[in-house]
Write a structure and sequence with these properties.
Elements lengths: L3 E5 L3 H13 L4 E5 L14 E5 L2 H10 L4 E2 L1 H6 L4 E4 L6 E3 L2 H11 L9 E5 L5 H10 L4 E5 L3 H14 L4 E4 L12 E6 L8 H10 L5 E9 L3 H4 L3 H6 L3 E3 L1 H17 L3 H9 L8
Parallel strand pairs: 1-2, 1-3, 4-6, 7-8, 7-10, 8-9, 10-11, 11-12
Antiparallel strand pairs: 3-5, 5-6
Helix pairs in contact: 1-10, 4-5, 4-10, 10-11
Length: 280
């Protein structure tokens, strides 16, 4: 039986990756759903996989309920980025992003200092797997900042309960340009919304890169700092800029490897030939 591939709530970039996967591996049984509400669990067939994004990653564990299982990592962080259907076993929620980020930086030979902190800009639900990813890199201290300080405090409280042994800190929005140069890896999750002065302001503050070590790593997941014209400032800071597309492709490579049995590196190289691009 040919593998099934379903993508739920993909953004425009991940929709492009979905189409690249379908084309590269001739997956005839493929579909896109706007949300998990549009998908019935009876539609899941083995062998198969469901790529999850945005709110669907948070909702997946509740959506599965007693009809599925969850990997220990997905259960701990309360977020899954994929469902895997194998044999006669019930669907299994898994979290691939932490492994994807780690292997991507290793594949691209990108170095970072593990004694530094991690920084996440944007206290959205997706900050949970990003925080788990930074912990997987060996960073023991993670700071979170958001245009809304209350959202930051709420996310820090949630992650402090889940990531044992990792120091999670709330960083006040007003202190972003004042903190010492101590982050080894920083990730932006803030979108470049035209009608939000708060998002615009924090993106401008981020462009100074005062928080990131000179040999640090910058990952703009949304591409917002490029969209807002801050790429020159970031380049002048001398940090290593990692396009999030590389990590997204690695995540897909690991998932398709599990689904098809092909080596993850071969899948990664196949997806690298796709025309999908991302400014971040």
């Amino acid at each position: 039986m040919k593998p099934q591939l379903i993508s739920v709530s993909p953004d425009s970039l991940d929709l492009g990756l979905h189409e690249s996967i379908v084309k590269a591996f001739s997956l005839e049984n493929a579909m896109v759903k706007e949300s998990l509400k549009d998908l019935d669990i009876s539609e899941l067939k083995a062998p198969g996989a469901v790529r999850l994004f945005q709110e669907s990653g948070k909702e997946a564990l509740l959506w599965l309920g007693g009809k599925g299982r969850a990997s220990s990592e997905a259960a701990v962080i309360g977020y899954a980025d994929a469902l895997l259907m194998e044999g006669s076993e019930p669907p299994r929620a898994i979290s691939i992003l932490p492994q994807a980020m780690q292997t991507c930086l290793a594949t691209e030979k990108i170095r970072y200092e593990v004694d530094g902190a991690g920084l996440i800009v944007g206290a959205i639900e997706f900050a949970k797997p990003i925080a788990a990813s930074l912990a997987r890199l060996g960073l023991k201290r993670i700071m979170i900042v958001d245009p809304d300080d209350q959202a930051t405090e709420k996310m820090v409280a949630a992650l402090s309960r889940r990531l044992v042994g990792i120091q999670i800190e709330a960083l006040s929005r007003s202190r972003l340009t004042q903190i010492p140069t101590e982050a080894s890896v920083a990730v932006n999750l803030v979108e470049a919304f035209d009608d939000s002065i708060l998002e615009e302001s924090i993106l401008e503050d981020v462009s100074y890169m005062n928080f990131l070590r000179p040999d640090g790593v910058w990952i703009d997941w949304t591409g917002a700092t490029v969209d807002r014209g801050f790429s020159d400032e970031i380049a002048n800071a001398g940090v290593t800029v990692v396009n999030s597309l590389l990590i997204r492709r690695k995540r897909d490579a690991l998932l398709i490897s599990k689904l098809t049995g092909r080596k993850a590196e071969e899948v990664y190289l196949s997806l690298a030939d796709s025309p999908v691009s991302h400014p971040g």
